Amino acid sequence: MTKVTLTVNGRRVSGECEDRTLLVNFIRNNLGLTGTHVGCDTTQCGACTIHMDGRSVKSCSILAVQANGSEIVTIEGLAKDGELHPVQAAFKENHGLQCGFCTPGMVMTAVDMINRHGGELDETTVRHELEGNICRCTGYHNIVKSVLSAADSMKVKQAAE
Ligand code: FES
Ligand code: FES
Question: What is the model's pTM?
Answer without folding.
Answer: 0.95
